[in-house]
Design a protein that fits this description.
Layout: H1 4-12, E1 18-24, E2 30-36, H2 40-46, E3 48-51, E4 77-82, E5 88-89, E6 98-106, H3 117-128, E7 134-147, H4 176-181, H5 183-195, E8 200-205, E9 211-216, H6 222-242, E10 245-248, E11 262-269, H7 290-301, H8 303-310, H9 316-319, E12 332-334, E13 341-343, E14 353-355, H10 364-380, H11 405-412, H12 416-422, H13 424-442, H14 447-452
Parallel strand pairs: 1-6, 12-13
Antiparallel strand pairs: 1-2, 3-4, 4-6, 5-6, 7-9, 7-10, 7-11, 8-9, 11-14, 13-14
Length: about 450
């Protein structure tokens, strides 16, 4: 890898003394190490080492030995290199002397490491590109701001509105007043993201107290889109901490409120730059486009087999509830937020698929691989989708998404197409870690069990 990027960066930022080198694990959690400034050029030229077992950690951050990347192989190191274009300052660090770079993990011979989620997406992009289309991708992330202190019952609560003793308590979707109340935070997020080259733009108040959505710019680079979403989550969490708040991308932090989703938008352009999903006749609806239908059909056809990757935690399935603007059925439709795949309204040349199944707790590299795989399978096999839904999908009868992690994990290994796109070795590590987490969470006794069962059973 060329070291020119590092040389230039160090010249422009003489105050930087420490660089954080980061890789995304299975859960989208950033792991890595800090190095001194003098070692950065060496890391660009020759790489650096991290144990491959960081890709087989459970929710507690403990290596799941059954995944085969721990003690059984001597907890071997793998070779890592920085991802070009991701080296940037860490603006929230008070001394202003720290930088960071995303990295990708390789085998020691330089080949791709099968358990690195970024390598999974990289291979998927290479395969998808054989179709000859240019992709247009944009991601939307939902999150909650939470007070660092719990309420009197030990439950989460929205933070205090600065300068007041009030908390956001009502659902005011798209409220400009709510944005004004947290303007200090939103401006800090957008400014910090721009300093790191992360193209965040629109921020809206979402459908619950303390919930917001931030959008990333539409662009042709799928890997960059995933990189930017991972970095944006770190920006949001770090800026929230700076302002004595917690930002959470947990899929369902409040059982009575809407969950946090990761909405993925995808369009395809031909060699002439024309959107192939757009209607060929201005009088036609976008849902009548045959290529769009094939793409939708492929994503829906693979939805159950890939849901464990989109909803990776036990909590993820609490989000998939009726009337909560998260899909509960394998459906699609035009400008309809009750379905799994929405075709947004607007300029016909901006016609795209909005994938709404994934929770904000999903790893963006794996979620985008799921989307590319489904579209590819649908296009190459000219699949046909069910009829688009008109009206409220929650009140209609359609095939359901999985409502629990156990069913989703079983379905994941039953589809040979998933093995083809993700690799058997990767799926073994992923499912082993997730089954370990299922046992971890299910083997807890809750306060409700004590309250309802202890005195009476």
């Amino acid at each position: 890898m060329s070291s020119n990027e590092a040389v230039r960066f160090l010249e422009l930022n003489p105050n930087v003394t420490t660089v954080e080198l980061l890789v995304s694990d299975l859960n989208g959690v950033l792991r890595g190490k800090r190095i001194e400034r003098e070692l950065l050029l060496k890391c660009y030229e020759k790489g650096f080492y991290l144990p491959g077992s960081v890709m087989s950690l459970d929710a507690t951050g403990t290596t799941v030995e059954e995944g085969g990347l721990g003690m059984d192989v001597g907890d071997r190191d793998r070779l890592c290199f920085p991802v070009p274009g991701t080296l940037s300052l860490v603006p929230w660090h008070p001394e202003g002397d720290r930088a960071q770079a995303l990295c990708m993990m390789h085998e020691t011979d330089g080949g791709p490491f099968f358990a690195d989620p970024r390598q999974i997406l990289s291979a998927a992009v290479e395969r998808f590109n054989t179709l000859g289309y240019t992709m247009g991708v944009a991601l939307e992330l939902e999150f909650y701001l939470v007070d660092i202190h719990r309420d009197e019952r030990g439950m989460l609560q929205p933070p205090l509105i600065p300068g007041t003793d009030r908390r956001m308590s009502s659902t005011q979707v798209y409220s400009v007043d709510d944005l004004d109340d947290y303007d200090f935070f939103i401006r800090d997020v957008v400014d910090t993201a721009r300093e790191q080259g992360v193209p965040a733009d629109t921020v809206i108040a979402e459908y619950a107290p303390g919930q917001f959505e931030v959008n990333l710019h539409h662009g042709p680079d799928v890997l960059a889109a995933a990189d930017q979403s991972v970095l944006l989550k770190r920006v949001i969490s770090s800026v929230a901490k700076k302002h004595d708040m917690i930002a959470t991308f947990m899929a369902k932090p409040y059982i009575a409120e809407s969950g946090n989703g990761l909405h993925m938008h995808l369009s395809l352009m031909d060699e002439a730059g024309k959107n192939v999903f757009a209607p060929s006749d201005p009088e036609q609806s976008a849902v009548e486009n045959p290529l769009l239908q094939h793409a939708v059909a492929g994503v829906l056809d693979m939805a159950l087999a890939t849901q464990a990757l989109l909803c990776p935690n036990l909590n993820s399935y609490r989000r998939l509830a009726p009337d909560a603007f998260a899909p509960t059925s394998l459906t699609w439709g035009y400008d309809n937020r009750t379905v799994a795949l929405r075709i947004p309204s607007g300029d016909p040349q901006a016609t795209r698929i909005e994938h709404r199944i994934s929770g904000a707790d999903a790893n963006p590299y794996l979620a985008l691989t799921v989307l590319l795989a489904g579209v590819y399978e649908g296009l190459t096999k000219t699949m046909r989708p069910p009829e688009p839904v008109v009206g409220n999908a929650y009140e209609q009868s359609h095939p359901h998404v999985a409502d629990n992690q156990r069913d989703a994990l079983r379905a994941l290994v039953d589809d040979p197409r998933v093995v083809e796109w993700f690799g058997e070795d990767f799926l073994n590590v992923f499912t082993t870690c997730k089954w370990s987490e299922v046992r971890l969470f299910e083997q807890q006794i809750t306060e409700l069990e004590y309250e309802l069962l202890l005195p009476y059973v």
